[in-house]
Amino acid sequence: MFSPESQGFIGSNFKWFVGQVPPNQNQMTKGGNWKTAWSNRVKVRIVGVHPKEGAYVSDDKLPWAIVAKPTHQGYLTGGSIGIIGGEWVTGFYLDSDSTNPQIPVITNILDVNTEEQGIKASKGGSTEYKKVDRYWMFEPATFQMIGGTTPKSQAKPSSVAFNSAKRSNK
């Protein structure tokens, strides 16, 4: 008689999880390249496995999770997963039949359902499952900043510049 258990199929005992991707734990942002990035893996802190405080596991020690992407995101497109950190995710363990599963696969992202202010970085190596500010990594780069002195008062164009601008708007 055919049974999935007798055939050694992956997932005969699916173990699902909910977790959070910590900030700056995307393999590409940690200095990876296409040869080592393994399809943009990310670290994930799994609820019930990685405590939020006390004997917590620091971000760097969390397991790398494979991110399941839709078929239109195959190798040909080179599409990014778009996970930057702070996202709450769901998934399953690829090795769920083992007594200590270690290969998480992220299948979905959960939307934010809180209005509390987010943290910008892990504290002591853990987000403690707090909301992460989604703009934490978007600090302006030096090439995006305009230099110069800070103005002391409102700009006052000369009458020549004012009249010239007035004529060009007609």
Just name the CATH architecture. Answer: Beta Barrel
Task: Pick out the low-confidence regions.
Answer: none
The CATH topology is given as OB fold (Dihydrolipoamide Acetyltransferase, E2P)
Name the helix and strand elements from N-terminus to C-terminus, one letter apiece: HEEEEEEH
Shape: elongated
CATH class: Mainly Beta
Measured by DSSP, the beta-strand proportion falls in 15-25%
End-to-end separation: 87 Å
Mean pLDDT: 75
- Radius of gyration, rounded? 24 Å
How many domains comprise the coordinates?
A: 1
- CATH homologous superfamily, by name? Nucleic acid-binding protein domain
Major sheet: 6 strands, mixed
Largest sheet: spatial strand order: 2-4-6-5-1-3
Which structural class do the helices and strands define? mainly beta
Helical proportion, percent range? under 10%
Say how many strands there are: 6
The count of helical stretches stands at 2
